């Protein structure tokens, strides 16, 4: 296949390939970003249809200017690429974290699409260039409005935007949580360390009380013995003094 034909195919199907890649990426990451983006693209196509752009179609319009031989809304491909571009560029600008490769790829896709439709095949007749530029402005404007509509809903909806996570991982750490957690350490036997400490404390307390009781009993017995000795010595002295007086 000639290189020119490859370029024509990529230019013709660039919006379809771009949306398909984004959808597959969301399926892989298990998020709703692609669904939100595709919904915005549907609204954009409805706006273009409502505007009712009427253009002159050349003889090769169905062959070179439509995907799957389906007549498309004039300027829709440029508008879709512009919409996706601004939807991904604005989050980068807010986070000051730019993906240069993605920006370059989107630029190349847009200029190849514009060259293919407005210059090479003049898909919209004499109005090809003006239709491409007008649809680009519409795509950029609606994409910006769509982004800010989601952005101003609050931080809970930032995960619906592309490139919403900056280098400091802002979205995952954007909320302070006052929830408290109680942790327990469990040993190999399934007993918590807290219970072991409590049981050990109880054993120590019982041992201390028992030791204190024993010490008190010993002290009491020694005091009684000393009292008995003192009484006996006192009685003996009294008896001796009485015998001497006689």
Structure write-up:
- With 246 residues, this protein is mostly helical.
- It has a domain at 3-160.
- It is built from seven helices and no strands.
- The chain has helices at residues 3-29, 33-51, 61-64, 76-95, 100-120, 128-151, 193-245.
- Helix 1 (3-29) packs across helix 5 (100-120).
- The N and C termini lie far apart (152 Å).
Structural key phrases:
single chain; 246 residues; mainly alpha; rod-shaped
Helix-strand topology string? HHHHHHH
The general outline is rod-shaped
Task: Characterize the largest beta sheet: strand count, sense, and whether it forms a barrel.
Answer: none
The average pLDDT value, as a whole number, equals: 77
Topology:
Blueprint: H1 3-29, H2 33-51, H3 61-64, H4 76-95, H5 100-120, H6 128-151, H7 193-245
Quick structural summary:
With 246 residues, the chain is an all-alpha fold.
